[in-house]
Design brief:
The complex is a heterodimer. Chain A is mostly helical. Helix content of chain A is 71%, strand content 4%. Chain B has one domain: ABC transporter involved in vitamin B12 uptake, BtuC (Orthogonal Bundle). In chain B, helix 1 runs antiparallel to helix 9 and helix 10 crosses helix 11. Classes of the chains: A mainly alpha, B mainly alpha. Chains A and B meet through helix 6, helix 12 and helix 14 of A and helix 3, helix 4, helix 10 and helix 13 of B.
Chain lengths: 360, 310
């Protein structure tokens, strides 16, 4: 215990769930308050701004659908990152893994000639495999050579991004698209069904929720999950327990990259129905998913909720752009701010601060 | 000059220009990491430097004032990271990522109205009288280069000297290797870490300012295009040594130049992957074999210091 002025500060190694929830909500609220100042600085009344956002997102079936639609890729990437972060594999590359998933999905949709519903199944499998392979590269490099995984996963985002651009400006540019940098539209059997009057491609949503449950079972109920947790605690402990770092980290990376790959297929097959500019395919879902996973604090099931929250932020970004005429970058600013407050507030979580009168 | 000679001269000259922002940003990150703090916010700080530099040049018409403001923008942003990671002991990776998101977002938001405007008061490149007329050497090193290139090279030498040959440098390295020992020696660990992170921010800001005030005198969102990440990779590649940073930055400057130069043979989009693929390759190569045996990574890198522990 330490004394700072009139306060007694005590370290709490395992804060209760309620406290974690309370402090996180407090951090989010603080983020919303700072955001109000940014609205105000931009010449938009904060009350008007938040009222417009709430009406635009919660006020209609379509608005609610937009929240869920944005939450789908965040959920898929987010649950994967929860798993990766549990093993302390710093996967900052969900963005790139999503994009390679979209690439392989597009390739199969346009050029494989598979008939009927098998095509969508092949696209999802292919997207998963692509994301998994893409994420395995940094995992292998880290375990075999000791290369920093933050940097390699991140560099591969840029590589994936430029490959998408290469394809849409080059070999895959759609002949029927009049010179625009898109591929042709997918055939009908590569379109994912939507929930009526929304943009929610429900099969991908289902995949996200299922994956969250599967990862939760994996983490909490299986030997593999135990190994992941030990590896995440300490490399030394893993070595004593006879756990193969290579196997565990590569598997974790592949599962997490595969999940992001599914998200990529969902975006092209459910929303765009073609491959287009990388920032239109993803809008930074892979980066935001890092916050989704961080906020979920190691639980894939909680990631469903945090993904919905950030889905709301993205949907709000659309409302802000359309009705308040502010640029979409508002969401990036808000995401950055939120992350600052969330990690800053962790100090509050692990320390109990009490006012001590008369003793100091 | 024959064909390949002029090609070589041109490549070296442009490699220095492309390498200038990489050099500044890398030098800054070296100091932050030598003091034990990883700052993954370089990309964001560069973006803020680029925007504020451009806006200042536009408003005042003075490119040097613009570069100073760019530095301060990066420096101020870095203090956010210092506060979170040094004072609040938050996870340095996540805090740095937050800074990158925030910096890219804020520069994009504020820069909306400034996109596409030309800058008439850009920083002019200089030719050094006398030296620029030496055959081959002149056009490579002393013709139409940025003043910031020469300042950057001098800075690298000065920063190397300070780091390895002065008491200040010893203090920085001690804080990065063993903060508890440094603390016992009477060094203020927190002050040193704050200062080094701040220096990193200032230099990243200048790197961004170079891009928007001199190199391509205009503001476009995302104009830093991943250079900040390359700088962080370079920091590891050059083994946290300011002198080696010169070689690393100009090598990657050459790669950036080639990714434009070779466009007649290979598609431009694929060429743009060159610096990133190369960064992964050099990180892998330097991580193996003899190089693997401690290349001088500060022992306490990424670990927050808690007074009274150990």
């Amino acid at each position: 215990m330490r004394r700072i002025g009139p306060f007694a500060v005590e370290y709490v190694p395992n804060p209760g769930k309620l406290k974690v929830l309370g402090v996180s909500l407090g951090a989010i609220l603080l983020g919303l308050v700072v955001m109000a100042f940014i609205f105000w600085g931009y010449g938009v009344s904060p009350v008007h701004a938040y009222a417009t956002i709430f009406r635009g997102t919660f006020g209609s079936r379509f608005g609610l659908g937009e929240i869920v639609r944005r939450a789908i890729p965040l959920m898929l990437c987010g649950v994967g990152l929860v798993l990766a972060f549990r093993a302390l594999f710093w996967n900052i590359g969900a963005e790139g893994q999503l994009l390679v998933g979209a690439i392989v999905g597009t390739g199969l949709a346009l050029y494989s000639g598979i008939h009927g519903p098998w095509l969508l199944l092949a696209m999802f499998l292919g997207g998963f495999a692509a994301g998994a392979l893409w994420a395995s590269i940094p995992a292998l490099l880290r375990i075999l050579l000791g290369v920093n995984d933050v940097l390699t996963t991140l560099m591969l985002n840029y590589v994936a991004m430029y490959i998408v651009q290469y394809l849409i400006y080059g070999p895959w540019r759609g002949p029927t698209m009049r010179g625009f940098a898109y591929t042709d539209l997918f055939p009908d059997n590569a379109w994912l069904p939507l929930i009526p009057r929304t943009n929610v491609h429900w099969p991908t949503l289902l995949a996200g929720v299922l994956l969250a449950v599967i990862f939760w079972v994996l983490l909490s109920r299986t030997r593999f999950g135990y190994e992941v947790r030990v590896v995440g605690q300490s490399t030394e402990a893993a070595r004593y327990a006879g756990i193969s770092m290579l196997r565990t980290i590569v598997l974790v990376a592949a599962l997490s990259g595969g999940a992001a790959g599914l998200a990529g297929v969902g975006e092209v097959a459910g929303i765009h129905h073609r491959l287009l500019e990388p920032f239109q395919v993803s809008m930074g879902y892979g980066y935001t998913a890092i916050i989704v996973a961080w906020l979920a604090r190691g639980s894939p099931l909680v990631a469903i909720i945090t993904a919905l929250f950030f889905g709301w932020i993205f949907a709000s970004g659309d409302v802000i752009k359309t009705f308040l005429h502010m640029p979409f970058q508002v969401t990036s600013v808000f995401n950055g701010l939120l992350l600052f407050f969330l990690i800053g507030s962790e100090v509050l979580m692990y320390y109990r601060i009490r006012l001590r009168r008369g003793e100091a | 000059m024959s064909g390949w000679e002029s090609w070589l001269v041109g490549t070296v000259s442009r490699a220095l220009a492309f390498g200038t922002p990489l050099l500044w940003a890398t030098l800054g990150e070296i100091y932050a990491e030598r003091a034990g703090v990883v700052n993954l916010g370089v990309e964001g700080m560069m973006a803020l430097g680029a925007f504020f530099g451009f806006a200042m040049a536009k408003v005042t018409g003075n490119p040097w004032v613009a570069i100073v403001l760019a530095a301060l923008a990066g420096g101020t942003a870095s203090l956010l990271h210092a506060f979170l990671s040094v004072t609040l002991r938050a996870n340095q990776y996540v805090s740095g990522l937050a800074l990158t998101m925030f910096g890219l977002g804020l520069s994009g938001l504020l820069g909306r109205g400034w996109t596409g405007q030309p800058l008439f008061h850009s920083l002019k490149s200089i030719s050094i009288p006398g030296l620029s007329h030496i055959p081959y050497i002149g056009p490579m090193f002393f013709q139409k280069q940025s003043v910031l290139l020469y300042i950057g090279v001098l800075l690298a030498l000065a920063m190397w000297f300070i780091l390895f040959h002065t008491r200040w440098g010893l203090a920085i390295r001690a804080v990065g290797e063993s903060p508890a020992t440094a603390d016992a020696m009477g060094i203020n660990v927190f002050a040193v870490r704050y200062l080094c992170v701040f220096i990193g921010g200032l230099l990243a800001g200048v790197a961004g300012g170079f891009l928007s005030v001199e190199y391509r005198p205009a503001w476009t969102e995302g104009m830093t295009a991943g250079m900040g990440w390359i700088a962080i990779a370079l920091t590891i590649f050059v083994a946290w040594n300011p002198l080696q940073a010169l070689g690393g930055a100009f090598l990657f400057g050459a790669l950036y130049h080639l990714s434009y130069r070779l466009q007649q043979y290979v598609s431009p989009e694929l060429l743009k992957t060159l610096p990133y693929v190369a960064a992964i390759l050099v990180l892998s190569l330097t991580a193996t074999g003899a190089a693997r045996r401690r290349r001088g990574a500060p022992a306490a890198l990424g670990i927050p210091y808690v007074r009274g522990e150990r």
